[in-house]
Amino acid sequence: MIYERKSGVPKFECTEYNSKTKDYAVLIPIINEGDRIHKELFRAKKHNISDHVDIIICDGGSTDGCTEEKKLRSLDVNALLVKKDTGKQGAQLRMGIWWALERGYKGILTIDGNNKDSIEDIPKFIDKLEKGYDFVQGSRFIKGGRAINTPMVRNIAVRLIHAPVISLTAHQRFTDTTNAYRAYSRRYLTDERVQPLRDIFVTYELLAYLSVRATQIGMKACEVPVTRAYPKKGKTPTKISFFKGNSELMKILFRNARGAYNP
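Structure (tokenized):
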């Protein structure tokens, strides 16, 4: 089914493999992740994650065969959304958030699809949502978390620049603010003071904005420990280029601090 002309939502195609079965959904934005997404989904299957959430793939237009239907079905994917419009991660998340809210989920989780994150920790996020938290940030840097083979430049940038600025903007301390492994309550995402479904969120703006807006408007936020593991050798699995990508991240960070994304 094709969805289009929805305000703040890119045109996309939806293929539902199953109906809604859980109160929560996890959105996994991908594009050409190859076997990495399959390995991540296999780990999810091994740990029975589909007993806790509906798994939704938010594809940016992959051409490498990683979204082959038979494979996704065998790995307990509930639905595949494919963006047919402009935009990158922010647009993929917007289509996923809109669709999940329309489907009636109580809360929405997000996680990268490059097999770096401990997808088996999803129940920790749901537990916090059930206890009344509106924003739950996964962190490798708090007690119980594990940072494995994190590149030195990334480690320094997160700890000394990104996390302090986000914390100041949010008026609450956060430690792992570039980590897309997090959860949001329905109450948070549908609050008129938030409005995540806007075309200004194209790349990484939405992640930065949603990191700070909950506590700015008096909602409850916390962190939970997770593992984020980079490969020991070889190319780092990331969509952020060293110079251009990181420069854009910094621009987004400081625009966010100035309140540029507030409704």
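The longest strand covers residues 24-30. The chain is about 35% helix and 20% strand.
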